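DM from R.C. (forwarded with permission)

"hey, sorry to bug you on a friday — could you get me a structure for this? deadline for the figure draft is monday and I only need the backbone to look sensible"
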Amino acid sequence: MVTKPEPSWSREGSTLYYTATVTLLEALCGKVLSIPTFDGRELSVPVTQIVAPGMTKVVKGEGMPDLETGEKGDLVIRFVTIFPETLTPAQKASIKKTLS
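My reply, with the result:
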């Protein structure tokens, strides 16, 4: 099978890797990811825990089928968190107060 390059996706055997970009707010407070699948579905994946640097989330059975067994591999979601470029003094004070 030939795989077409797609920047958000990579593959290793039957395991698919998807890179999801989230804002700092979403990384701290959660979000439902909407991930397009290769079979035309839209996969909704709730992210309810804090997304720490290097964190991944595994969705069992949403990878590619194994050619020998026919069983589907897993989908591993990698996260990239986008930080704000600037904060006002009031925003900084609010964050300090909230996180202290």
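R.C.: lifesaver. The radius of gyration is 17 Å.
me: no worries. The longest strand covers residues 15-23.
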